[in-house]
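Hello Y.,

Per our agreement to keep a running log of every chain we model this quarter, I'm adding this entry. I've kept the format consistent with earlier entries: sequence first, then predicted structure.
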Amino acid sequence: MLTRPPLLGCVSSMNLKQIETFIWIARLGSFAAASQRLNTTQSAISTRIQELELDLGVQLFVRGRRAASLTAKGHDLLGRAEALMEQVWDIQTSVGEAEQVSGIIRMGVADLIALTWLGDLVKEIHANYRRVKLDLQIGLAMELVEKLRGGELDIVLAPGDAWRSEFSAVPLGHAEFLWMARSDFDIPDRALSPRDLQQWPIITLSSQSYHHRLVNQWFRDNKASSRNYIECNSIGVIASLTADGLGIGLIPTSFVSERLKAGELRIVTCDPQIAPVGMFALFQKDCTHPLANEIASIASRVSPLADAGERIQKADPALQ
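Predicted structure for the entry above:
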């Protein structure tokens, strides 16, 4: 058993940085991952845990070459440590002045949101929490959600109902996705079925994306199948390739309103249409970050989609 002479009589020198470090090592499974998550050196992480173990007089981790696992005492501490940090952060956010709250929040943002209203959201966050640093990662929804699962991100703004049961999910409204083509694209000027549409190249996000999954589901549900995909990793690229006449793209109307007005693109009427796609702010149900819920609320207020979400149909439950 680890021992250490008592400091100031019976008062421990245990501090909140040590507790926070302990929690992140336990969640991420290694000292190296925790050092990246907390934006500090691995030696600083090791020092904090060594001091915490000495303060408590127990070993908290079994250290391996690349991983760290909790001891029995470590498991005993984890729930108490998370409850303690929740109380501390509740005091900071509900009692303290908002401008005094500091730290880093790692936020994953789906491409569509990043290209439309992310700037408004960042301005609003900084207006409320000037000392908070935002670490933004832009990417595909599925990739961002996987990082959220692994503790690499604190909050994700992304499309799709598929993860609502796994995470805390704050609705951000719905986005309308419609099939579009270049204005002079050689395609009949009538309502087209999925079987009609499958004969032309279809421009989508990568096969690992929610967007691609949505397109595939639409074809399958209507007994059709497109094997001629052009894949990319950006909604902006889909819009550009579609405007260049390389195929038909499923594009959010809010993103290309100017191109539609200018006549660069036209809407391809399809029957059935693809249901509007729900957007959500997602974070872990046991998230201990003080601002995850607050930033989700800010995103809900800032989102230009929020009002429309109350009036239109949710995305197909089969996609869940």
